[in-house]
Design brief:
- By secondary structure, this protein is of the alpha/beta class.
- 39% of the residues lie in helices and 22% in strands.
- It contains 14 helices and 12 strands.
- The strands form 2 sheets. Strands 1, 2, 3, 4, 5, 6 and 12 form a 7-stranded mixed beta sheet that branches.
- The longest helix is centred in the first third of the chain and has 26 residues.
- It starts with a strand and ends with a strand.
- The model has no long low-confidence stretch (mean pLDDT 97).
- It binds adenosine-5'-diphosphate and magnesium ion.
Length: 369
């Protein structure tokens, strides 16, 4: 009898809450239904403001958004139940990533905060909710991120080729999958995926994204600017590493743009190159044996980004995960349903060779339905 889980994910882009229904049967995972649940512009603005100004953020605003996002996640799950005609009793659990508002895995007091109160999700859906996946890994000395590599390994590892999975969300992260299942899997955040593209498009077009890379296509990459950006110390940092919008934002970009006069469309073209180059460079450095790159996340829909990845000098074959029957937009949501399943089965969810944690951990807190 297959077990049904719901996965809830909202990434750094805050483009929508991804809500998926998956079934687990033996070792197979199937995506049965999905929904993009909208986040209002007002809430998006408040979330961005909160995460941008962690040092001055008000506890009141943080707490209100925790409740608002908890209700929004619950609404998404309930809407998916309505759409599919399923009842709460048919769902074993929800895995909810939450909305990251703070990710600071380095230093003396490392932590990572995802909001969207799971008490509210469990109460409003009646479904057991697993949430707060990252902090156990951080408590064990890890980065708490990325967490999707274990799921990538479960669905994409094959014995006959070395594959690298690239998730291009706001931040881009890679999972390096050796052909030999006994060799360690590695994974890390390469740096910006779409986030700088989105933020620059917002500043210059007033649009949440540069749809289909139209803006970037009007410009030409500026070699001098690109040269400065790729030398940012994050890209050369040793593994394990993870990052967020706290670091890669317009303040970061403005620091490099100071005094140089580059047209907005040329900046956009340069930012596309930055994302693509830093992804390819990271793979060339850490997994040069890669045969195939499988791309997921919203960046898979940006033809400019995909063309740049395809034109890599290293000879990597580049494909969307859609070529493997897995919708690129819902892999992360599926991953959090899968992580909830791991937790309820008493199985580990982190990969120590990815996050740098000292111990294998059963991740997350369980909020009974
Ligand atoms: N047609 C498109 N053209 C360009 N970019 C796109 C397109 N569709 C999606 N994207 C990009 O994908 C992002 C959303 O990707 P997603 O994987 O949901 O990221 P996150 O995990 O950060 O929420 C959008 O913000 C946008 O930058
Ligand atoms: Mg998203």
């Amino acid at each position: 009898m297959p077990e049904s889980y719901i996965g809830l994910m909202s990434g750094t882009s805050i483009d929508a809450v991804d809500c998926v229904l998956v079934t687990f049967e033996n070792n197979d995972v199937h995506l049965r239904a999905y929904l993009d649940h909208p986040v209002s512009n007002d809430i998006k603005t408040r979330l961005h403001a909160l995460s941008r100004s962690a040092k001055q953020a008000s506890l009141d605003e943080y707490s209100q958004l925790d409740v608002i996002m908890g209700r929004l996640f619950a609404d998404a799950a309930n809407q998916l139940l309505t759409n599919t005609g399923m009842s709460a009793a048919q769902i074993t659990a929800i895995g909810s990533h939450g909305q990251t508002v703070y990710h600071q895995p380095e230093g003396d007091t490392p932590t990572s905060i995802q909001i969207g109160d799971p008490n509210i999700i469990a109460e409003l859906t009646g479904i057991t909710t697993v949430a707060d996946f990252r902090r156990r890994d951080i408590a064990a000395g890890g980065q708490g991120a990325p967490l999707v590599p274990a799921f990538h390994q479960a669905i994409f590892q094959v014995p006959d080729e070395v594959r690298t999975i690239v998730n291009i969300g706001g931040i881009a992260n890679v999972t390096l999958l050796p052909a030999n299942p006994d060799e360690p899997v590695r994974g890390f955040d390469t740096g910006p995926g779409n986030t700088l593209l989105d933020q620059w498009a917002m500043r210059h077009l007033g649009q949440a994204m540069d749809r289909d890379g139209e803006f970037a296509r009007q410009g030409n990459s500026n070699a001098a600017l690109l040269q400065k950006l790729v030398f940012d110390p994050y890209f050369a940092r040793p593994l394990p590493k993870s990052t967020g919008r706290e670091y890669f934002n317009l303040d970061w970009l403005d620091g490099y743009l100071a005094e140089s006069r580059v047209n907005p469309e040329d900046v956009q073209a340069s930012l596309c190159e930055l994302s693509a180059n830093t992804i390819i460079n990271a793979i060339s450095k850490h997994a040069p044996q890669t045969h195939r790159i499988i791309v997921c996340g919203g960046g898979a829909h940006n033809p400019v980004l995909m063309a740049l990845l395809n034109n890599n000098d290293a000879g990597f074959i580049v494909e969307s995960s859609a070529a493997y029957g897995v919708d690129p937009d819902y892999i992360e949501g599926m991953a959090f349903a899968w992580l909830a399943h791991q937790t309820l089965q008493g199985r580990y969810g982190n990969i120590r060779s990815v996050t740098g944690a000292r111990t294998d951990c059963i991740l997350g807190g369980i909020y009974p339905g």
